[in-house]
Amino acid sequence: MKKNEARKYYRALRNEFSNNDISILSQEIFENLQKIDFSNDSNFHVFLPIKKNNEINTYPIIDWLFSENKNIILPLVIGDDMINCKVEKGFKTQLNSYQIPEPISFTEIDSKEIDVILIPMFVSDKKGNRVGYGGGYYDKFLARCKPNAKKIGLSYFRPIECIEDTYFGDFPLDFCITPEGIESF
To answer: Taking CA 56 as the corner, what is the angle to CA 51 and CA 57, rounded to the nearest 5 degrees?
Structure first.
């Protein structure tokens, strides 16, 4: 399957989810994420869910990471790139013009300081290649991260067999967390 086909197909499936479906599936993903050993990791890049896109609710993950004394880094889109915003517990957000929640108060940090990256996406394949929104924001960001940072995709859907049109600028995942479990690549 090509990325555009997968994007269209899985976006349509995701758009059919009710708020209750999103809540249940997000909770299952959160429970599976908790099975990974993060004892040696401190800095976690976590995306905030875009409600209109029925994205996975990451707020329970953020609360759990704060309770584990981890640092939370949120993305903030500036132009055609993202910066890393370290936030404190109780952080506030505002919606940008695309209805994406963004932190209001933060400390910018370097990408090389991040240990774990939770990545929004539609689906991955069995090699860890992912299908995101197609803007290239995460590819640019991942290119600046340290090579051993854990790249973890969060998806409602199990990996498909193959994404046919990957290219050298794509960064494969280390793990994909779905409601069914953990896929390791």
So the answer is: 75
How many other CB atoms are found less than 10 A from the CB of residue 11?
14
Residue among 21, 81, 74 at smallest CA distance from 48: 74
Quick one: 184 exposed, middle or buried, by C-beta within 10 A (0-12, 13-18, 19+)? exposed
Q: Phi and psi (nearest 5°) for 139?
A: -60, -45
Q: What is the mean pLDDT of residues 67-92?
A: 95
Q: Can you give the three-state secondary structure of 66-106, one letter per residue?
A: HHCCCEEEEEEEECCEEEEEEECCCCCEEECCCCCEEECCC
pLDDT in tens, 29-78: 999 999 999 999 999 999 999 999 999 999 999 999 999 999 999 999 88
**Structural contact between residues 15 and 45, judged by C-beta atoms closer than 8 angstroms:** no
Q: CA 12, CA 10: separation in Å to the nearest integer?
A: 5
Tens of pLDDT, residue by residue over 140-157, are 999 999 999 999 999 999
Residue 104 has pLDDT above 80, yes or no: yes
| 86 bridge partner residues | 73, 107
Run of H or E residues at 25: helix 19-33
**Is the distance from CB of 47 to CB of 58 less than 8 angstroms?**
yes
Residue 140, by phi and psi: left (phi above 0), alpha (psi -120 to 50) or beta?
alpha
